[in-house]
Specification:
alpha+beta
Length: about 120
């Protein structure tokens, strides 16, 4: 049977496997945040069984598991944390020309001189 749905995310937190939809998951990521633990994404692409390191961020009154920078391509394509490399997404051709990044302020924007003059 074919399914077009993305499988539920699962993480390893403090030695235990936690599906994102499991009862107690929000408590588990709160614990990870408070104890500075790094959950590991258990998507199927990771063949070593150790998982891909993630981090927990505060979101309003709760917490959310987020992927570490530059690790999107390490995840399975059907994983919610997957992101193709810049070379495969087409973004690589734009970095430094139509898109300028400013790591000091963690911001970016279109370069009107290289992206069509800024006319919308």
């Amino acid at each position: 049977m074919h399914s077009d749905t993305v499988p539920p995310a699962a993480y390893e937190i403090a030695g235990k496997r936690w599906p994102k939809d499991a009862p107690g998951f929000s408590d588990a990521i709160a614990y990870a945040f408070e104890h500075r633990l790094r959950p590991r994404c258990l998507c199927p692409k990771n063949s070593d069984g150790q998982g891909i390191e993630m981090y927990v961020a505060r979101l309003g009154d709760g917490y959310i598991v987020k992927r570490m920078p530059e690790t999107g391509s390490q995840h399975a394509p059907d994983c919610l944390s997957y992101e193709p490399t810049a070379e495969f997404s087409g973004l690589g051709q734009l970095i430094g020309s139509a898109i300028s990044e400013n790591p000091a302020t963690v911001s970016g924007g279109l370069n009107p001189r290289k992206s069509g003059g800024g006319k919308w």
